[in-house]
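Batch manifest line 249
LIGAND: 1,3-dihydroxyacetonephosphate
JOB: complex structure
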Amino acid sequence: MTIWVGTSWKMNKTLDEARDYARGLVAGLSGQELGDVQPFVIPPATAIAAVAGILADDSRVLVGAQNAHWEDAGAWTGELSVPQVADAGARLVEIGHSERREHFGETDRTVRLKVAATLRHGLTPLLCIGEPGDVKDRGRSTPYILEQASRALEGLDDDQRARVLIAYEPIWAIGEHGRPATVEELAEPFAALGQEYGGGVAGLLYGGSVSLDNATDLLGIDHVDGLFVGRTAWELDGYLQLLRRATGS
Ligand SMILES: O=C(CO)COP(=O)(O)O
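JOB STATUS: finished
ARTIFACT:
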């Protein structure tokens, strides 16, 4: 079974920094046995092509985009389409991250359209779901995320679903003000996701304050097929160390 370990750089890194990271990653992985671990890197759009060009030297690392529009082309100022990010070298498209839902008007409807567009063009959607802290406080995390996932995947057939990655990223666990979810807190949501989607999608990932301290424990949770990482992997050494944790090397 594939273990996905990837990072989104969010709105970080110049082209030079992105190239340095990508070159370092190729060098750092050279000769390293990855086993079932599938690395992926999601740079800002400005760096997708450069990073994909460098990582082509290690074809084991997938490159993604942090967002893409649902239409293929047209009058959508400031947006990028799935064919455009694919043209730049992206093979994954991250969709519905909570930062996009909160700040950029991403809704269940636009998320669903983007998942469908990504599949239509043969790329892998990385669908992000996650509940705010007040929903967790009311004990409603699991129904909330199941509803989000079901709305995003509405209308897909089994073959299409099988190509989707789902990342559960509780909003209260993400970023510098977030607190990492504990293994105990994640057991129930992942049991529910596993029951609903386990085996039916490409993988179920956890994201939110993943660190070198908690990565191994998080990967040990039932139905967790991988980790989606921000800050800990923005420095290359952190990402390489996470990959080593995942491969057990
Ligand atoms: O949002 C995330 C990945 O998409 C997680 O970010 P952090 O790992 O920095 O909490």
